[in-house]
Amino acid sequence: MEGTAQVQGGTLTSPFTGTECLAYEYEVKEERNSKNGRSWTTIDSGYNFTAFRIEDGTASALVDPRSADFRLSAERSIDVRGGKRPPEPIREFIRRNEDVGSEEKSLDSKLFELNTGKDRKYIERRLDIGESLHILGEARYDASAGSEAGEVNTIIGSGGDTKFVISDTDERGAARRAAWKGLPYVVAGVLFFAIGAFVLGL
Fold first, then answer.
1. pLDDT above 90 for 101
2. Whole-number Å distance between alpha carbons of 136 and 174
3. Which of 135, 130, 44, 139 lies closest to 93, judged by CA?
């Protein structure tokens, strides 16, 4: 199913850019030295999401992402040199996250100041409000899923064990990612439009 992501009841604030969104994934990578040279090591990662609606221009359905497999391709990477002060949203993230210490470290020898913190990449992927997306998953009837004009009584996802894909790529890319994972997806669009046509035709 193809459409745009719209607000259902609330939004989130992304951790590194402070952007209002509906879902995000983040990753913190730190440069490490080894006998094989330098490499980037992930020192922390996570995600968050909220319920939202998918709108196709004629109707919208509720999406419950609790069992979703998010495939967000667009990313924003903020590079911070060791010893330098990161932007305020990242500083706040560090203050609230005991797994990620400060990189604002330096050694003052009275003659000069040497930055000793490690270089980092703060990577953020988001599902923004109004962003185009594809969903591969099972839709079901739910009387409580829509109450306003244009909202159909359909919910995609239920928080159970059945996985489904939410992707910001095109339809082919979403299907390819689902097939690659080998998950038992069912295209939701047919049921969605069938229910939508029935409800809106009343």
1. no
2. 7
3. 44
